[in-house]
From TrEMBL:
The keyword Oxidoreductase applies. This is Alcohol dehydrogenase. SMART domains: PKS_ER. Keywords: Metal-binding, Oxidoreductase, Zinc. Transmembrane segments: none annotated. Its cofactor is Zn(2+). InterPro entries: ADH-like_C, ADH-like_N, ADH_Zn_CS, ER, GroES-like_sf, NAD(P)-bd_dom_sf, Zn_alcohol_dh. GO terms for molecular function: oxidoreductase activity; zinc ion binding. It comes from the Bacteria. Residues 10-342 form the Enoyl reductase (ER) domain. Belongs to the zinc-containing alcohol dehydrogenase family.
Length: 344
């Protein structure tokens, strides 16, 4: 099979011919229909994640068809069209049994712990526990980002922040996961406030549900927080940081209303120093969000199927594997607005 291979951290990957994979016990091989270009892929490529060993095929968002079954697989058949969370639980531990596979201590992650979906085929472990059937009616562009960006944002807003209709939520960083959060918040009847330094990203955010857009170019955290409050006319009761930068997390914390809830999605390259005194004085809640278990997908898929949430509208470019190699390097600079989808 053809696949993108990272041979050295930070060095542009190449498309290579690799042996086709076989299905492990309890797992499957998928023929990849489409896969996502996500900022987390760049973290793996740049060496920010110590779970990644080289060489490695990146890619953790996907939609595809079951091509081969390993021993013991019961829940799917060859030919089924499926997606999967990027965090895949073992299916045996107490966290998985409780429906919290996203924090499974024995989790696997395609593109990180083993070869991922920037290839013609990919292996998924513990298939009965991790595969999500998606049927034939949804286009690939509506499904592919459900593996990471939309699933992470959905759980961040619903299960972690407990976002309610009518509430204001500041979303800082309007890349793929930030735009996903804005679309989901709008579909839930909340009032999303988009914050970014890229006018193109802010325009997309307004187009897809943001009630207010804040251009934070040249602003420090305190000034960004003030701009959020001024533009929104109030302090938001919830916030999401989708970049993984100390300054933008501080801006979110400084903007929040007392008793507000902040959800951290963005991954930091270095451990941050944050505005903890305000967390204490205003009794803010700071919450992490690390994907979503397959068991929690029905609510998200229902929004997509009914049309109130349209992930496909964020897709701004379609790439082949060769183009994906270049795009992965460019994610370390400023990624183009919107979502990139790769067709292996």
């Amino acid at each position: 099979m053809r696949a993108v291979v990272i041979e050295k951290f930070g060095l542009r990957p190449e498309v290579r011919d690799l042996p086709a994979p076989s299905a492990p016990p309890g797992g499957v091989v998928l023929d990849v229909e489409a896969t996502g270009l996500c900022r987390s892929d760049h973290h793996a490529f740049a060496g920010h994640d110590d779970s990644v060993t080289l060489p490695r095929v990146p890619g953790h968002e996907m939609v595809g068809r079951v091509a081969a079954l390993g021993e013991g697989v019961r829940a799917v058949r060859v030919g089924d069209r499926v997606t999967t969370p990027f965090v895949e639980g073992c299916g045996r531990c107490r966290w998985c049994r409780q429906g919290a596979a996203q924090i499974c201590p024995d989790q696997t992650q395609p593109g990180f712990t083993h070869d991922g979906s920037w290839a013609e085929q990919v292996v998924i472990r513990a298939a009965d526990h991790n595969l999500v059937p998606v049927g034939e009616e949804l286009p690939a562009e509506a499904v592919v980002t459900l593996g990471c960006r939309f699933a992470t944002a959905y759980r961040a807003l619903t299960a972690r922040a407990g976002l309610r209709a009518g509430e204001s939520v500041a979303v800082i960083g309007c890349g793929g996961v930030g735009l996903s959060a804005i679309m989901i918040a709008a579909s839930l009847g909340a009032r999303p406030i988009a914050v970014d330094i890229d006018p193109g990203a802010l325009a997309l955010a307004r187009e897809h549900g943001a009630a207010v857009a804040v251009d934070s170019r040249g602003l420090d955290p305190a000034a960004t927080a003030a701009a959020i409050v001024e533009a929104a006319g109030e302090r938001p009761t919830a916030s999401v940081e989708a970049l993984g930068r100390e300054a933008t997390t501080d801006a979110a914390l400084l903007a929040l209303a007392p008793l507000g809830r902040h959800v951290q999605i963005g991954l930091y390259a270095e451990p941050p120093r944050l505005a903890i005194p305000r967390v204490i004085s205003q009794e803010l809640a700071v919450l992490g969000s690390h994907g979503m278990a397959a068991a929690d997908y029905p609510g998200l898929l229902a929004l997509v199927r009914e049309g109130s949430l349209r992930p496909q509208d964020l897709v701004t470019r379609t790439l082949d594997l060769e183009q994906a190699c270049k795009a992965l390097v460019e994610l370390g600079e400023r990624a183009p607005a919107g979502v990139g989808v790769i067709r292996p």
